Amino acid sequence: MQKVVTLKPYALITPTASITAATHGGRAKCLQRLIRLGLPVPTTVSLSFDTVHQIAAGHLPDIGSVLNAFDPDPLLSVRPSSEDPDWGGPGAILNVGMNDARHAAMVKTHGAAAATALFLRFIQSYAVHVARLDPDMFDDLSDPTEAALRQALEDYEDETGEPFPQDPGRQLAEVLRSMARAWEGTTARLLRQAKGAPADAGLGLVVQKMALGVGGDESGSGVIQFVDPATGEAQITGRYLSQSQGRDALAKGKGAIYLTKDPRGASLEELSAPSFEKLIEYGGVCRERLREEMQIEFTIEAGELAVLDAVRVQRSSRASLAIAVKLAEDEVIPREEAVLRVPPGALNELLHPQVDRLAKRDVLARGIAASPGAAVGKIVFSAAAAQASAARGEPCILVRRETHPEDIRGMHSAAGVLTERGGQTSHAAVIARGIGTPCVVGTQGISIRHSTKRLKIDDGRSFSEGDEITLDGATGEVLAGTVPMLEPSLGDAFQKLLTWADAARDIGVRANADTPAEARMAHMFAAQGIGLCRTEHMFYEDDRLTVMREMIFADAAEDRQATLDQLLPMQRNDFVELFEIMAGKPVTIRLFDPPLHEFLPSERADMRQLAESLDLPIAEVTARVDQLSEFNPMLGMRGVRLGITIPEIYDMQARAIFEAAIEASTRGEAVVPEIMIPLVSAKREVEIVKTRIDAVAAAVRVETGTQFTYRLGVMVETPRACLRADEIAAHSAFLSFGTNDLTQMTYGLSRDDAGRFMSNYVNQGVYQEDPFHILDQDGVGELLTIAAERGRNTDSRITLSICGEHGGNIESIEFCRRAGFDYVSCSPFRVPVARLAAAHLAIQQGKAAKS
Ligand code: PEP
Ligand code: MG
């Protein structure tokens, strides 16, 4: 015996019924709004989350009273109504209530074919979704004959051992029960959780009187929307199909007609102008009052239009942005709401080409998605081959075990970069993000043989130089061959939305940019300055590398000075260009950071070439290279330690910065350069470097007769610098957290090698996320908080920022806002995403404060 619960288990949807999206679901709420707007919605009853949950547990409401809400002998549809329609739910079931008697009556009123088609459709849905029979048994509805109907009823009885249920009450009860249970199943739960639903998300159900799209006069059904789902441009799309139900009109090859007049064929506008005009009117009403672009599902029953449902138009990221901006421009929604309607991550799709989501994928391997976008090209195994390929105009994918500074030019030439090793902050990942090149690192299931120029896949396949592959930098997939792409699109709407975002946000966004090309990108994306310019990348250019090597080999101070004098004008020009591009916005230049041996040759041929240019025996070159090699270079002679032991390098850089600032200021906007000292761990390091740089500034002022100011700051990237931030702040105008090295040193985890086991660690839940990708707020975050507090205790006006790769992530931006940082700095391509994310956080906080 079924237990009948007597709580108010359902509500007839009327303009005043107590229905909310949080208790009855988005569809029920939307239907109520349509009713309030006076749209012709058939009688509808809404079952709350609670009721549906009870049904799944075996407690049915009084079905008789649900049926009583309708005319006698109704035909009904049942649809899911989850809180957020995007979370989905079980498919709709139409024509509940159809049985032999109803069929016989409808044969007389609607004709045999229409009546039989309806009944067959219901039998099929019921058999598959309620009785859980094999769908193949009932998949042919194309021939609605009496014989087919008898056969379907017989098949049903054979399979279930009982006749097809005739009682509408029983039919409805079973449909409700099966939909309620389907929602509680594990697969459905995992699916909706993947779409962002909480684990305990509820399901409501709506039971609606069918508006039949079959029978006499003009009858049929269709779907209409008023924007192009790919671009968001205004455009009426959809189809109408006579003698049909549900979304049949959208099924291909069924004789559906266009909605507006169309040279390609018949249209609803011609077939039924009054219905078409009403639909246009309803579309306008929905947009204005529901404040959204809606897709309307409608039926025409003997010439009468009914609106069955309206759902948010499914849309691409590009369309979502265009629609939000247009709604705000038309004053349907406020600008801040338009900003909130575009998820920051969606901008990635607009900034880079993407693999077409509908394209077939032959996945060769998976790695860490290190830099977004997609690239197709021929495999090359060396930076030189990448440059040659670019010179031939052939897009290529640079495939390396890992990349090193000498690969940078090859990376610039490649359409994409694939590495076997590395993690989110490995060399390949950082550079690729900086230059906006799609990149996959730490790739599982491949092995690269540089000597034989082969890329081997664990499934046995093997690729040679020249073979084509595709990288999907959004998913980390490596795909065989050429896969179709969607081109990036930045338009007016993009610029407008970001301007509105800027008006709302309360934390600055700068870019990490090392080259003029990156600075231009940063400027184009409206970064508020450069937060980190890694100067060492400037020394890898061919003409400079040799001079750099000569500097490293110089024993005598005057020899070293001679080489630095050669480098000075080159650096000065670099900085003039950066200052000019940034047009007066702040530029933070980090002094030389990497270990010197990174500039030395590792191959014998390169050593011989260096020996020639230095006029030294090769043995002396190799001995010097050995002498400079370190067991732990990342913890060795690098950063400020070089600045202390070979101070002439920083002197030269400081001079280049000051002279460039003077030059750029005389030609354009005034420049106040910011100089940043890397890898500091003791206040004395700052004192020594500051004294020398102040002296260089004084000398340049005297030599040029020009006054200028500058700001000197510290890159906080060692745990000790965080702990001693109070005394370090005494000599610093700003502290910028280098969270790549800080994460490496806090965890004692190599940023270049962690990728090898990171997925294992994350899969086992040892780490929630890769800490090089998502800021570890508990550990590294605590160090940041301590440092910020101690730094501010010394100087309350000190500028605080983050410039590690974490800077562009929403979670880090949230952390930095909470900690009261002044700005975040991230790769140029992430600047728009960071601007939008920061705006979301500020707007949401403002809303929370008001409520
Ligand atoms: C850092 O360590 O966080 C940083 C930004 O510097 P780099 O990545 O150049 O070491
Ligand atoms: Mg660093």
UniProtKB/TrEMBL annotation:
Residues 494-841 form the PEP-utilising enzyme C-terminal domain. Pfam families: PEP-utilizers, PEP-utilizers_C. Its EC number is 2.7.9.1. Keywords: Kinase, Magnesium, Metal-binding, Pyruvate, Transferase. One of its GO terms (molecular function) is ATP binding. Its cofactor is Mg(2+). This is Pyruvate, phosphate dikinase.
